[in-house]
Amino acid sequence: MFFIPLPDCITKADKKNANYSLLFNKWVRFNGSFDMPRELKDKKVDEFIRLKTEFDNRKSQLQKIAEFQKSRIFNILSVLKSKGYHCAIIKAKVSDALICGLGDEHTLENSIRLDHCTGLPFIPSSSIKGISKFFAEFDTETDKRIENKEPIIFGSQEGVGHVQFWDGFPVDVPKLKIDIMNNHFQKYYSQEVDFPSDDMDPNPVPFIVIDSDSEFYFPIVADSHSNLENAVEFLKTALSDRGVGAKSSVGYGIFNELEDEPVPMPKPKPKAPSACESAFEALRKSPNHEKFSNLLLTLKETDAEWLTNQDLFAINGFDVGFSTKLFETESIPLSIKKILARQFIEKINLKDAQKRAEKKGDKTKLERYQKLKEILDS
Fold it and tell me: How confident is the model at residue 79 (pLDDT cuts 50, 70, 90)?
């Protein structure tokens, strides 16, 4: 491992809202000499504590990301289900501790697998498929592995499998804790001495793990119900009996409280607006005689109920003068004409129209009223 100092513009940047994956993997603090990285070795615990604290400080931000990620994955599964694929989601809780990516390259030597996009700890699909395949091929009677026992599910050299195992993500932001591996006989294991002895100094090695009771979900997609059922059974047993990730032989990565999460059907697409609805919206946005004429030409007898529920006069700028287009357009069904005539005639004061005709000789409103009345009486 060698060090690459970051430029000042990055080291001085506000990292409060930075992606935690970048923070953990790229922004490790080191104020010593880059020629002597051993100085960092003595401060590993402090640096792991700082990185864990940075994670805890981002919990509210990461929770929103976790919820969005879950919603996104569930929506994709819903669409696949509607297309005929068979989908399942397994939810399970970490029994004691979980660590994936312990051996990933990192300045502090021990790492944890984080999703590059979200910064959330996750379990890679390759690991999930790997433990499921191992369990499926393991013969408990002979205590041996039978390779390619389930080629239809997991695939083989001859063809791909019929089941997809997706990445496992946390339901909510998981709790992290700092664990240690304590090598009591380092000189013996590094072959500096021939025999281990109790006078050798222990060498505690810190690393970050996901704490117990953190809940994960594991999506599986298959081409048939039988393949899905078998894959689900293999994964459930592997998670509860064998574990996933590093150090599974000493109890890490075991899951309990396994349960099935239903995959919802996708929400129906919003109905596309009809021709009359589109024309009405255009009239509402820009009320003029041409737009009203376009609306009249789209109306059919089947639109009568819809039209009854529309209030044309709620449109700013719409008035009884628009009735001229109603009289000019002959192709409108009579039932539609009557609905519109009723809306127009309610806005005309008959007494006022008669008085205006008698005193001022302006018969416009009165003639308009009479034409509307003829439509209603027809």
Answer: very high
First-to-last C-alpha distance (Å) of the chain: 93
Domain end position, chosen among 215, 237, 261: 261
Residues 197 and 312 in one domain: no
- Quick check: helix, strand or coil at residue 92? strand
**Which of 322, 323, 326 lies closest to 334, judged by CA?**
326
pLDDT tens string 56-74? 999 999 999 999 999 999 9
Q: How far is Cα 110 from Cα 181, in angstroms, rounded to an integer? A: 11
**Could you give phi then psi for residue 256, rounded to 5 degrees?**
-135, 180
**Statement to judge: residues 316 and 341 lie in one domain:** yes
Q: Are residues 90 and 197 in the same domain?
A: yes
Domain that holds residue 339: 275-377
Query: Do residues 63 and 158 share a domain?
Result: yes
CB 63 within 8 A of CB 172: yes
Domain edge (last residue) among 212, 235, 261: 261
Question: Would strands 163-165 and 215-222 be described as parallel, antiparallel, or unpaired?
Answer: antiparallel
Q: Is residue 1 assigned to a domain?
A: no
Contact 253, 246 (CB under 8 A): yes
Is residue 34 over pLDDT 60?
Answer: no
Whether residue 244 is predicted with pLDDT greater than 90 in this model: the reply is: yes
How many folded domains does the chain comprise? Answer: 2
Nearest to 122 by CA among 50, 79, 159, 174: 174
User: Is residue 296 situated within a structural domain?
Assistant: yes
% of residues, the chain, pLDDT over 90: 53
pLDDT for residue 37 is more than 70:
no
88: which 2 tokens?
């399942």
219 and 330 together in one domain? no
How far, in Å, are 158, 215, 216, 217, 242 from residue 245 at the CA level? 28, 15, 14, 15, 10
Is residue 137 within a helix (H) or strand (E), and if so which, with residue range? helix 125-137
Stated pTM of the model: 0.68
**CA distances to 144, 147, 245, 251 from 139, in Å:** 5, 10, 22, 21
Kindly report, residue by residue over 293-330, the tens digit of the pLDDT: 999 999 999 999 999 999 999 999 999 999 999 999 88
Q: How far apart are CA 161 and CA 164, in angstroms?
A: 8
> Contact 244/253 with Cβ under 8 angstroms?
yes
